[in-house]
Amino acid sequence: MKPLALTHFTATSCLGRGLAATLEALRERRSGLRKCTFETVDLPTYAGEVAGVDAVVLPEPLRTFDCRNNRLALLALRQDGFLQAVEASRRRWGRRRVGVFLGTSTSGILQCEIAYRRRDPDTGSLPADFDYATTQNSFSVAAFVRRALDLDGPAAVVCSACSSSAKVFGSARRMIEAGLIDAAVVGGVDSLCLTTLYGFHALQLTSPEPCRPFDIARAGISIGEAAAFALLEPASSPTAADAIRLLGVGESSDAYHMSSPHPEGAGARAAMLHALHSADLSPGEIDYINLHGTGTQSNDNSESRAVNSIFGADTPSSSTKGATGHALGAAGALEAVICALALQNDFMPAGVNTTRVDPALAVHYLSENRAGRLTRVISNSFGFGGSNCSLIFGQAGSERAAPARRGGERSAP
Amino acid sequence: MSALTAWVDGVGLLGPGLSDWAAACAILRSESSYEPRPTVLPAPDSLPPAERRRTGRVVKLALAVGLEATSRAAVHPSHLPTVFSSSGADGQICHEICEVLATTDRQLSPTRFHNSVHNVAAGYWSIANGARAPSNSLCGFDASFAAGLLEALSQVAVEKMPCLLIAYDTPYPEPLFAKRPIPDAFGVALLLSTEPRSGSLARITATLTDASPDRLSQPRLESLRSAIPAARSLPLLQTFAQRRRQRVVLDYLSELCLAVDSEPCT
Known about the structure:
Helix content of chain A is 31%, strand content 20%. By secondary structure, chain A is α/β, with parallel strands linked by helices.
């Protein structure tokens, strides 16, 4: 594929608001997971709650979008000068030439969960102040972000469970390469809600302690929430000179089970191979693997087999979910941003909470942070329904070969 | 402004009073009158019995129209990339989960939870057909059909592969129905490919436009188009049924629509 530049990016999770807080927490090997006290939830589990979401006030013209998910989106958009970067991009390309592609798994479902507690005792109807389209519907986050960023280009929400906000990079990249748009805001926003906390508990997949991916005593996931965004622009654009590159995207389906991954990791393997192929890279050219690494027995087993079958057991790897929790539909974008931070700072984050790596999982799992020049990294995201996506990021200039410029290619006016 | 082109090799359709693509063709050509009747969804025979028992209306609808499109084109679905697009997930399951969560008990069914995801149709399609190719699941609220079509067309253009688009919507029960009144189930599948084949129906080319979306002249079909996001496809489907060379404008986002030039294959 034709590489794209991440000319700007930001992330807000339980590690903190924006890039500096995220990087500092990763360097200090801090976890943002706490005993779950979210809303009225009564479960023996840990969660990665973002502080201060309730205090976010949406500006008046956007008030109709008010819900936890969109508050979290706005909180994240306000960090690291992201709003200003998109505004400059909008001026450069035109508001119709910048797309918005976001991933979420549950959007503003919390609003509906709360509305169901407030049904009219006589008629059963939901309260008048509950607005389905602007809160609960999965598209609401893209409609909101499109309005907040004053963009009029194509928009869609990818809703493929835990691979959602990795797959948005693929959708955006195709539309840019097809020439329909010049740039895109991609990202993921998923916020805590009762459906996922009680749902993963019902599946017996939530850990009673902070999750410890790839540990011999791993006992499931800790659910987190996050919003992460990146501005994708052509590598030839004026602001892209030193920007981190999106080099490859690989997608696949398991065709196996709705909530369990393929035991041998066949779908995960196909996604990673497809990503390598699309970047025209060989496995030996990848310096670090940001694992999906949820901390469930089944994910870590199957992912380690898939990783080992391609990369062997020497490529440094870690899951950052011990620090951030599993941000579900926002995990792909959050971990894309962590990969971009790793590349910019020559830094591989260790997997926190993991004290004894499961010897049955044949990967080189990082228990300590590691410094060193990184050229290219891969990030895995796998979801329910057997939906898999792997993304490859690299330094500017790390592309396999400079693609030939095509006649008629658009450039900045 | 760039245009995206593909050939339509097969169509599947199911909706209120529209039992399949052949029946819909006759109605869209005004050869038979449109009588809305509740949508009848077939059992998903392509799934293993254990999985079949667990599926709801969304899965039955998506599998039915997807298989109609691929069987009309005589293409096996196992190697086809897919794009699923809908305004919502399974409305019945969403309602049941929210009801349980509003009680003090809050014990969810694990199966119900994993079937509540928006990409449930994509998951079961992949299992039913052994389909391991990339698959995307989109939501665009009322813009879901055009969003799905753009995604599928850009896949065809860039990946140089065929792509099966399946757009579908099913109703919520009350009390959510009052907030999102989708009246019945409607699904449409378009098998898109990079070049014409002997059975291709039409060549379509899409561009973004400021123009307003087209309406249908038959009032009952127009009500269907405006009531269900996936039925926003009807003006395009009518050009296939009538074998007419025409530009149609499909509903998409506010201040942005999708113009599609449709040209029948001879």
